[in-house]
Amino acid sequence: MTDEELIREIQEGSRAAMEVLVKRHYKSVFAYIYRKTGEYHTAYDLTQEVFIKMMKSLKSYQNTGKFEHWLLKIAVNHCLDYFRGREYKQQHRETELTEEAFPSSEHHNVWDIFQKRNQNEQVRQAVLSLPEHQRDAVILNYYNGLKIREVAEATGTSESTAKSRIRLGISKLKEMITGGDRHETPTYKRNK
Q1: For position 134, which CATH number holds?
Q2: Which residues form the RNA polymerase sigma factor 70 region 4 type domain (predicted)?
Q3: Looking at the structure, do residues 87 and 123 belong to the same domain, yes or no?
Q4: pLDDT: is 150 or 105 the higher one?
Q5: Are 88 and 1 part of one and the same domain?
Q6: Cα–Cα distance measured from residue 93 to residue 29, given in angstroms and rounded to the nearest whole number
Q7: Boundary residue ending a domain (30, 62, 94)
């Protein structure tokens, strides 16, 4: 069933359709929020809240585009609200490494696993240090696979602004992580 068919069933009261829709999009929303916050438990809570907002907003959903983009826009706005809120400002920002955040492999020795975690932590810290508007654009484009047009829609900006934010964000990340040349061309998903 398509997302739109599931939404029609949900609007008619189907709990099963709701479960299917949430399961279909949960991983994508959680991944965006985790990369945005850098904290597993916070991302879990915020993801739950996004899906609650989604369910409350479904009656006003208009099939004007792809449902996933509409849902990610809810996630973007919810994260903005969270970072503006008192709870975030009062929260002590200690990061814990969790097994859920990093893929494990039985075929690597301890040193390889440590290096991989160290690299992942370095990338995560670099992404978190980007200005918020660049962080959003990079996460949506690179990790969630949205095209520039879709990033622009989700963040409420023009395509040229979204493209610029992605380019600058990737350039800053490259410089922070590898000390790379800022003038190399970044790779991002173009409109096709």
Answers
A1: 1.10.10.10
A2: 121-173
A3: no
A4: 150
A5: yes
A6: 22
A7: 94
